[in-house]
Amino acid sequence: MTRRVLIVLALVLAPLTLAPVSPAAAAGFTVNSNSDAADADLSDPACATATSVCTVRAAIQQANATAGSDVVTVPAMTISLGSPLTISSNLTLRGAGARSTILQATGGAHGMLLVTSGVVNVSGVTVTGATGGGALAVYQSGGDLTLQGIRVTNNSASGAGGAYGPVYTMNGTMTVRDSEISGNSTTSTSSNAFGGGLSVYSSTVTVLNTTIADNTVMAGSAQALGGGVWAGLNSTVTLTSSTVAGNTVSAPSTFGAGVFQNMGGTGSVEVSDSVLALPQGGTNCAAGGKTPVFLGRNLLDDTSCGAAAATRTIGPTRLGALANNGGQTNTRVPAPGSLALNAASTCATPTDQRGQARPIAGKCDLGAAESGSNRKAAVSVSNRKPSAGSDIIATATALNRGLDHSTSTRLTVTAFRAKVLSATVLGGSCRVSGNRATCKLGTVAKGTPKRVLLALRMPASGRVVITAKVGGAQADQVKANNSATAKAVVRAR
């Protein structure tokens, strides 16, 4: 080969040799089938099963095989999973909302979401139905996992050895935000059981604006630890603006129906602007050598976490039952008169677990839910140009556009320069005196208005102004909506 040919080949090959290799671009996958089929060909970057549809399993398998950070979007649907979904790469799994996108276990004992590595974000889904041995709804063994706006509910882990669950992190970093962990159980028949709601081992976990409620941990012949939260060896758990309530421990030896603190090693549990309440079978707190640290202001209904102090108020919490109080996840909202109302040291977030604005009345409420209604008054008349001395009908309405019911609702109607003859309302009562009617409406639910019909007698002449004002027990989001007016101009005979 001549020297000239060698030079030409070198010039041609040089760019190929020296050019850097770019990583594969991140991919986005949209699920279009609720089947549980796997991807047909991982060498092909398309999400496609053997029947050419994109399932959540196939999409996650493709994401694991693709370099970069991927997004899997799941529309409103219920998906029955016969085995865990394993996530091992940077991934965002985005549902249409926890009440709309449901991941449910089927086909025997298994977990649901298994995160082994990567930066992973899961939002807008419900994870439910995991049963039997090793049935962890969400299991993290490494990486950085964020759960936002999800429901982990009605999962049941059990076994003869130590049982953990249903949300269990080991050697990872986890953030749980705006979520609900409820109605789950963890049972061991012959050994210890750990964490009815959240189990943490050698990990760092941040819980914000989240409700951990009505979970149970049971051990047939040993110890049950942490009905709501178990913080194990070398674990750091931070609970902020969260509600841990109504959790149960059941065993010959029980520790911490609400929160159980580290058994040893390093780590800590810090609680701020939260509510710990209504423990069943045990106390709110128990510690295996360390005591939770309380910051800001908190509300508890026993002294197991320490005596009353600047950071701990001891007293009745008056929480409502766990229910759909608006938003994508269930909450326990403080009732009127609760010590949780307007008691937080700071507002950690601009909204509560449901997305309702914080604060509503001056200061934020303790716990995951900000109690408040959005009452609005409206009023109209049947005749805006009545004759002198005639009678007309006015309709005054109390509406509620907030997430929480308005209780002890009052509606006051004043007819300036006219006389109120009568006032009637369905589901309430009214008292009439002169030009005013004062009505007790009881509870006004969101989207269910209550109307008062009034008979008014007009004066001989002039302008009549009818004003309606609404109030209630809850703090009000928009006080400017609390009053309304209607006018009538009397025609002389």
Describe the secondary-structure layout.
Elements: H1 3-18, E1 28-30, H2 56-65, E2 70-73, E3 77-81, E4 85-87, E5 91-94, E6 101-105, E7 113-115, E8 119-123, E9 126-128, E10 131-132, E11 138-140, E12 144-148, E13 151-153, E14 156-159, E15 163-164, E16 167-170, E17 173-177, E18 180-182, E19 185-188, E20 193-194, E21 198-201, E22 204-208, E23 211-213, E24 216-219, E25 223-225, E26 229-231, E27 235-240, E28 243-245, E29 248-250, E30 253-255, E31 259-261, E32 267-272, E33 275-277, E34 285-287, E35 293-295, E36 298-300, E37 312-314, E38 375-381, E39 391-400, E40 406-416, E41 419-425, E42 429-433, E43 436-444, E44 450-457, E45 462-471, E46 483-490
Parallel strand pairs: 1-2, 2-5, 3-6, 4-7, 5-8, 6-9, 7-11, 8-12, 9-13, 10-14, 11-16, 12-17, 13-18, 14-19, 15-20, 16-21, 17-22, 18-23, 19-24, 20-25, 21-26, 22-27, 23-28, 24-29, 25-30, 26-31, 27-32, 28-33, 31-34, 32-35, 33-36, 36-37
Antiparallel strand pairs: 38-39, 39-44, 40-43, 40-45, 41-44, 42-43, 45-46
